[in-house]
Design a protein that fits this description.
The chain is α+β, with helices and mostly antiparallel strands. The protein has 2 domains: 3-142, Jelly Rolls (Sandwich); 146-214, Orthogonal Bundle (Arc Repressor Mutant, subunit A), CATH 1.10.10.10. The protein has helices spanning 3-7, 17-24, 81-86, 107-116, 119-144, 147-162, 178-185, 189-201, and strands spanning 28-32, 37-39, 47-53, 55-61, 67-74, 78-79, 93-96, 100-106, 171-174, 205-207, 211-214. Helix 6 (147-162) crosses helix 7 and helix 7 (178-185) crosses helix 8 (189-201).
């Protein structure tokens, strides 16, 4: 793995070339096929995973056995930092959504890097804070919004994360499978299909085979 690839990862973007070379000697690369469970909720975590290629979903399972997607993470994101830092069990299960390649960093290497570069700790705390805010928003959504509002909020969240806006001011996101939208919204795939069809009929969004194009602000009913 080249040093330039490591420097492209936001967490290590401020390291010098020599520091990246030293870090590179302490890393392990792991590859997983689509649908693999990378970590299980409740496991003891000793390593942090940085996503080099692919996409994963962060999930919990309800008492009824329903999968709830808390978040999705792509190349450049990382997970597992909480268990590495606090020695507590993993808080969620991570499942690959496509073939993935990870850079794996042990607790010892990460702590050593933080000691040498305190700004790494600030980056970790900032990201943990952002994810906590997102989790709180999702909990509030599931508790207080109707199903239409929850689906709308999920699409808004995906569009913000994709950050892809056309010259005409339209947001375009890769079309996730309806089951994933359902699992993020706390509803069924059939309900998501119906609501997306409603949004499309009203001219709020356009649906293609691969994309959702957002034409105007989605209203969220409290």
């Amino acid at each position: 793995m080249g040093t330039e690839l490591i420097k492209k990862i936001p967490l290590f973007s401020e390291l010098s070339s020599k520091e990246v070379e030293r870090l590179q000697n302490s890393l392990e690369i792991r590859e997983y096929p689509d649908g693999s469970i990378v970590v299980y909720k409740g496991d003891v975590g000793h390593v942090l995973y940085l996503i080099l290629e692919g996409e994963v979903k962060v999930v919990l399972t309800s008492q009824e056995g329903k999968e709830i997607i808390l978040n999705t993470l792509q190349a450049g994101d990382y997970f597992g930092e909480m268990s590495v830092l606090d020695h507590m069990p993993r808080s969620a299960t991570i499942i690959t959504m496509e073939p993935c390649r990870f850079m794996v960093i042990t607790r010892e290497v990460l702590i050593d890097q933080i000691r040498q570069h305190p700004k790494l700790a600030l980056k970790l705390l900032s990201e943990m804070s952002r994810r906590l805010r997102e989790a709180n928003e999702q909990i509030n959504s599931l508790a207080h919004l109707d199903v239409r509002g929850r689906v709308a909020q999920t699409i808004i969240k995906l569009s913000k994360k994709a950050n892809t806006r056309t010259e005409e001011g339209l947001y375009v996101i890769a079309r996730p499978v309806e089951k994933d939208i359902a699992d993020m919204s706390g509803t069924s795939r059939e309900t998501v299909s119906r609501i997306l069809g409603e949004f499309s009929k009203n001219g709020i969004i356009s649906l293609t085979k691969d994309e959702i194009i957002i034409h105007e602000a989605l209203e969220i009913d409290e």
